[in-house]
Each structure stands twice: as structure tokens, then as C-alpha cells.
């Protein structure tokens, strides 16, 4: 039976084929020449305080529509004002309502490193991310075999970007570590069923060696949640829904950073 992840990826591949026929790869590669320089997100993630990657997300397969977001750059600026270490922009269209145009808008107005959040399955998407000014891309281990994973990871590094390598099981964490990933995200949401369980991070973080930056992703809605994953070893959290649905996202971010940084203030 096909999982939600399989269905999402089938749509992503269709949309990708359309873009590839409109803009051949050599044109995308030529666009990289004029793209802004890549920003390195790792120093901020390695800082003693809890870092937050704040997500621009209009809708999701689990919740449907979350927020209108007529101006993604305006929202990203509010995130930056609250202390975001990086901004995640969902570019998947069918289920998340995003686009590369959103990425462009945010890139023009915000100085923080930007994650192009999509279901990366082909090198084309990585060139495209770089051409549109992304600094990080997402690699979902559950969606890729080891050969694809290592090819896509290597290309990301060659283009000067950072890969956020996302896992949901101890076996996927083992594969991410074997790849040499320096930034690993534990998704508390199972992309095959969409169930969220905050204890996933706690269960998997211990299997990720020191030196790797650990990100707790999904289902983090409050300062208490931020404190919980920080106590379990998260250097950063990735938050979408709780911020796009909050009237004062900047204040919500500041409260999460404060609650999640108590452990680091020894
Ligand atoms: O909105 P939330 O529950 O705060 O989650 C944000 C982020 O973790 C989530 O959007 C996400 C994590 N991994 C993904 C992979 C693809 C699309 C989306 C995601």
C-alpha cells in the first residue's frame, strides 16, 4: 500500500518534470552564477543557546490550511525579529501550498540562512535551490536509498550548501551518521502515517554522536516543548504550525528560545 510519503513524492515528481521541461538543467546551473553567496548556518546552530528554524508553511497534509500568508517575507522578517537562527520555506506546492517564488521573496528581504524545505529526490532540485538563494536543503532519509542519499548529499556540499538530513527511526539515524551528515533532524512526525510523537526525538537523539548538530522537528508548540527537546540534546528546533498560527510569532520564538536555553546557561 502506498504511504502518504509515496503519494507526496509522486506529486513532487510530476511538478519537477514540468519545471525541468520549462527550464533545462544547464539554464538553472547558469542562474547559480548570479545567485547570492551561500550563508553558513552551522555557527548559529552550534551556539550555546537553543536555535530555532522558523518555517513558512501555508498548509499541511495533516491539518489542511493553516494560514493565508499573503507575504512570506513579512512573516520571515517577524521570525528574524524574534531571534530565528534560520528560516525554512516550504516550496512543495500540492500539499503545503508553497513555491520557489516564496523562497525568492524571503531571500530578498531576510539575512538569515534559508532552508529550502521540499522532498528532494533529484539533483535538479538542489541546483534549483542554490539558484534561488537557498543555503540549506532537506534530505529525507526515508525517501532515498543510500546511493541517492550520498549523491544528493555530496552535490549539496559541492555547491557550498548544508544538508539537513531528516530521520524518524534509529535505523535511519544510523544511515544519516554513516553518510557523515553534520546536521541531523529527527522528525517527530512519521511521514508515512502523519502521527506526531515528541518522544521520537528523545528516543533517537542518543544514537547520534556528539559533534553532529541535532534538530528536533515537528509538533513543537510551546516553550515547555522547546525545553523538553533541549533537555534531550536538541541544538535546534524546527517549528512551523505554532508560529504561522500565532498572532505574535516573534514573541513566541523568543519565549521558546528562553525556555530551551536554560540547560546551556550553567
Ligand atoms: O508545523 P510543525 O509541526 O511545527 O512542523 C514543522 C516541520 O518540522 C514540518 O513541516 C516538517 C518536518 N519535516 C518535513 C518534511 C517535509 C515537509 C514538512 C516537514
Automatic annotation (TrEMBL):
The keyword Lyase applies. Residues 5-254 form the Indole-3-glycerol phosphate synthase domain. PROSITE patterns: IGPS (PS00614). Pathway: Amino-acid biosynthesis; L-tryptophan biosynthesis; L-tryptophan from chorismate: step 4/5. One of its GO terms (biological process) is L-tryptophan biosynthetic process. Its EC number is 4.1.1.48. It catalyses: 1-(2-carboxyphenylamino)-1-deoxy-D-ribulose 5-phosphate + H(+) = (1S,2R)-1-C-(indol-3-yl)glycerol 3-phosphate + CO2 + H2O. Keywords: Amino-acid biosynthesis, Aromatic amino acid biosynthesis, Decarboxylase, Lyase, Tryptophan biosynthesis. The keyword Amino-acid biosynthesis applies. GO terms for molecular function: indole-3-glycerol-phosphate synthase activity; phosphoribosylanthranilate isomerase activity. Coiled coil: none annotated. NCBIfam families: PRK00278.1-1 (NF001369), PRK00278.2-4 (NF001377). Belongs to the TrpC family. HAMAP family: IGPS_B. PANTHER family: INDOLE-3-GLYCEROL-PHOSPHATE SYNTHASE, TRYPTOPHAN BIOSYNTHESIS PROTEIN. This is Indole-3-glycerol phosphate synthase. The gene is trpC.
